Amino acid sequence: MSIRAEGPSPADRPPGALRVGLSRGLLEIREFAHAWKSVILTFSLPALVLAMLSSLLDGVFAGTSAVDHYLPGLIAMGLMSVSFQNLGLSIAQERDTGGLRRLRGTPMPPTAYFVGKTVLVMFLALGQVALLLGVARLAFGARLPADPAAWATLGWVLLLGTASCSLLGIAVSSLVRDSRSASGIVIAPFLVLRFTSGIFVPVAVLPGWVVDAASLFPLLWMAQGLRAAFLPAGAAALEPGGAWNPPSVALALGVWCVVGLALVLLTFRWKAGKDG
Amino acid sequence: MSETAIEVAGLRKRYGDDEAVAGVDLTVARGEVLSLLGPNGAGKATTVEILEGFRHRDGGTVRVLGEDPGTAGRRWRSRIGVVWQCEALTPRLTVRAVVRHFAGYYPRPRDPDAVVGMVGLGERAGARVASLSGGQRRRLDVALGIVGRPELLFLDEPTTGFDPRARRDFWSLVGGLARGGATVVLTTHHLEEAEALADRVCVLARGRVRALGTPSTLGGRASARATVGWSADGRRREVRTDEPTRLVGELATLFSGEVPELSVHRPTLEEVYLDLIGEAGRERGGGPGLPDAPGGRRAGTEVTA
Predict the structure, then answer these.
(1) Do B18 and B130 fall within a single domain?
(2) Cβ within 8 Å, pair B84-A27
(3) pLDDT for A250-274, tens place per residue?
């Protein structure tokens, strides 16, 4: 056999992580777009809940309309849905079906996989916010953030909240041993948090220990930060501490980003348990 | 560049008390098609996963394309192709879109459309992955394994679920890749497949190499005793002999011409294989020692009917 000139040369460097990651993001968005029939209900659930509550409970809350009352919390829930729930379920399934193992067998940089997920989640998060703001504003005449500072608050809460929930979702996917058991591990805790983090039930009426427990997770802080962006200054009096306290929101979500990243780095597996 | 694609010496891997790989030595030349045969639990999968860099070894040295798979990086990985049996991550995208995307992982990929044609999915290039039949999905798995133009290709039971026609097409595809210079490591249970494709066959059992050779000479197959059969007085006669040619000559003299229902049978690869893994089972005492398989190398000539 002759020696072939096909060996590695500097020109054979595999494509970089950013380029492959963006390509993965585009692929994931295309897959999502083709799957819209099966995901449309999950994606539009926060908007449907907002529409129902805004119609049924208008006038129940003194001094504020039902849509204004529920919009910040439902945006937080929508963001957690497209990040935590979406990644928790989809990564568990990708691991269970051997898809992750297949990727690991290619020269795809591991970072590219996460860049791709980031692109997908950011796309879905912006879509989620646009849908909720559209329904709230056009159908129910909701208040939007009043000034650039309030929009900026919406921006950073969206970014930090989605990032922390995404990392938590990736970490939780590793707890799933079998994708059929994923709903119990991913969906149930999220459902409980919706009732204990001030989304459906105001924080002010919840028992103190419930709020303390819910404060350990990002959803409560996201909802609080978003209320700061959407509601008029006077509404802050309804918060437990009498203020929205954006620095502590940023601190809590920032800590969750760090903790979530550490959990992901410690627990992420490309192979399913059954693959050994 | 080295003429050797894979060099394995003293490879060991233990899971708890079970020594899955118990000292495997193996060298695979560049451009060679090597088939790994062995019963379930023989250590085939573990050996291949160590070669692919998916599993750590407990002992021995391994060089694959000149590097240690345990520490090799992405550039090494881009020279290797692995054909997995698994679901696609993107069932709703088209075959063409998925192959194009995977091509983007490699520095010098094959043309994605050409690869789709090579695996026989040309007419289904625009079809969603979810709409493919089982055999077509396996072809897509193959396409994803070869789109990066691998120098070394690992195939694990590649034709499971293929109809006979698709299997032949696949064999000619692998033959073409090998003629193009690719080294192929094929794990299979199909002995016919190993015989059709492999330059050499390696039989593993109980974590050790039991036999290594060309399909036609494996386990002394070429020199093994032949069974000569014929009919005489309305009865079937069979004789196992080391000298089938002499016996046929004698029979020809005896019958003065055409010998009725003459047959000369050498052990098939399957018979040799069953014999080899049967021996491995008996060595350990408690194993499911197979009843005497045909093709054994006993001395002398015996009449069995």
Answers:
(1) yes
(2) no
(3) 999 999 999 999 999 999 988 876 6
